[in-house]
Amino acid sequence: MNRSSAVPRGLLKFYQYLGTFFSALILAVTIVLISKYASSMNPLLYGGIIGIEVYMLWKSIYSAVVIIKYMNNATDEEIIANRFIMAVLSMGVGGFITPFVLTQLPKIETNSTINPRVFLAKHLGWTMFIGSILALGATFLFALTSPMKGLFVIDTTTMIVIGIYVVIFLIGLLGISFFSSKTASEKISQKNFLGFTMQVIGVIYTLIATIEMILIAVMGVIRLIAVISDAIRYAANSEGIWMVFAIFIAFARITFEMMYVSMIFQISGSIIKGIWAKDQVITIKNFQNIDEKEAELNTKR
Questions:
Q1: pLDDT (tens digit, 9 = 90+) per residue, 204-226?
Q2: Is the Cα torsion angle 172, 173, 178, 180 positive or negative in sign?
Q3: Which residue of 110, 202, 283, 299 shows the fewest CB atoms closer than 10 Å?
């Protein structure tokens, strides 16, 4: 591999570890913050918010493994060409530095060596398959142990939540079943019913990736609201000289969180634009397999 790489591989891999750490930290902070309001919250809502964060932590761990492995084997051209696809997988509530760096890589004239539909369907499939189980478990664990657990009942709302997790589980299973094989890139390009079906599923996963980016942005806003509420309450309960420090700390926390949410919105927008763009590095209709593209790149060196 070229040691004078134009792609900051070491930093990108470090940011993946850092993003996973922050995802775990944010989960812990979320549990602490939301626990302060648990006595006045619907237990299902309480557990549901934590369940989503657990899902994001699992996504961060899984994406770190996939991306670090890819960084160790891919060329500069491949990493640059596939930057938006990698960014989708690496984007999370705590992992925004890696997507930011990836989306800022130079826009050179090269085609994606990874079929975006195959890649997203396979890896988001595993994310959804395992993540739905973990999120469902976390949702009901915290709902059944919340201060308002006495209000928890198996009603229509609860069944809807269970149904959503089941749908996520089944969609994940669908992606794994169709796209986990090494010949998936070849099968999706075939002009038959299987190829058409796989392309449709691939589009669905691209839509899911888009929705996930929006969800991450929404979770950022929810966390911002929680930080603002907690900061105001902390400042209001302080007295004397400590009030000055409390106001300063509250202002700093709110400012930092607003900067964080602003960056999340910017990166999410770039990723969504990138994975749907037809005239940039991701060409959705290009279904050449990876080996052929790698051979082409090797002959040009």
A1: 888 888 887 787 778 778 878 87
A2: positive
A3: 299
Q: How far apart are CA 282 and CA 285, in angstroms?
A: 9
Cα–Cα distances in Å, from 49 out to 30, 60, 78, 136, 229?
9, 17, 37, 11, 17
The SS3 call for residue 80 is helix
Q: Within 13 Å of residue 64, how many CA atoms lie on the same side as its CB?
A: 23
How far apart are alpha carbons 301 and 69 in whole angstroms?
23
The Cα–Cα gap between 99 and 89 comes to 9
Rounded to whole angstroms, how far apart are CA atoms 170 and 166? 6
DSSP E strand boundaries for 75-129? none
Between CA 109 and CA 106 the distance in angstroms is: 10
User: What would the DSSP string read from start to end of 10-45?
Assistant: HHHHHHHHHHHHHHHHHHHHHHHHHHTTGGGS-HHH
Contact (CB, 8 A) for 60 and 147: no
CB of 111 closer than 8 Å to CB of 281: yes
Closest alpha carbon to 172 in 194, 204, 217, 216: 204
Q: Give the C-alpha distances (Å, rounded to integers) separating 55 from 128, 222, 236, 252.
A: 8, 16, 34, 29
The pTM for the full model equals 0.68
Q: What does the alpha-carbon distance between residue 143 and residue 47 come to, in Å, rounded to a whole number?
A: 5
The predicted-structure confidence for 109-166, as pLDDT tens digits, reads as follows: 555 566 777 888 888 899 999 999 999 999 999 888 887 877 777 888 889 989 999 9
Tell me the two tokens of residue 240: 């004397």
Residue 264's Cα: distance from chain center in Å? 11
